[in-house]
Amino acid sequence: LPESCGGDTFMDPGREIEKIGSTGRAIAHVEIEIRDDTGKRLPAGQNGEICLRGPKVTQGYWKDPEKTASAFFGDWFRTGDVGYLDEEGFLYLTDRKKDMIISGGENIASSEVERVIYEMPGVREVAVIGLPDDRWGEKPIAIVVLADDAKLDLPGLTDFCRTRLAGFKVPRQLIIRDSLPRNPSGKVLKRVLRAELEANA
Questions:
Q1: At what angle do helices 154-162 and 110-117 cross, to 10 degrees?
Q2: What residues form the membrane-spanning segments (predicted)?
Q3: 186-198 as b/e: b if 16+ CB within 10 A
């Protein structure tokens, strides 16, 4: 994060396998807490927004008081990332807050669904996003780029995902594309996908 001048966690040597999936514990002079949307601190093991505090963490945005106000809970900087701390303070990232899908009151981490779909033969790229749904609020949509000559349909995707994910996390729609929009650094632009699909809905 540019707002915190680089890395904020460090993995204890020798614990990489035991704590697989974790980014480590807070480095010296950095504090990490997990908070809900109201700013309330959450206990270990519970997903929420990752918040930072410390001398290397920004105190605000230059000449932008509105952005500064929305980026902090008191003196805790809101990273926009979702994750949790375990009982020993090891941090686990779940998703970007803006990429979380809320369907029927349940939180769905798009990254979790994407990891499962990447296990399918013939899947070259995948992005999972939430689109508005009258009944559920949002529904998960899988947008997939297939390898040459590979085939995939929604029933096949559904069957595969149901053995690996809770039912509410299984994509309700499958869209096959030739490519995914990306920024210059290669990150998939999910906001572009959302805008395109909502415009065509």
A1: 110
A2: none
A3: eebebeebbeebe
- The answer on 136 and 45 residing in a single domain is no
In terms of DSSP H, where are the helices of 39-189?
65-70, 110-117, 154-162
106 plus 72 within the same structural domain: no
Domain that holds residue 113: 100-200
For residue 175, the model assigns a pLDDT of 97
Residue that terminates a domain, selected from 45, 71, 97 = 97
Separation CA 20–CA 14 (nearest Å): 11
CA distances (Å), origin 118, targets 115, 122, 145, 166, 176: 5, 9, 10, 17, 14
Residue 141 is predicted with a pLDDT of 97
Task: Give residue 132's Cα distance to chain centre.
Answer: 18
What is the structure's pLDDT at 22? 96
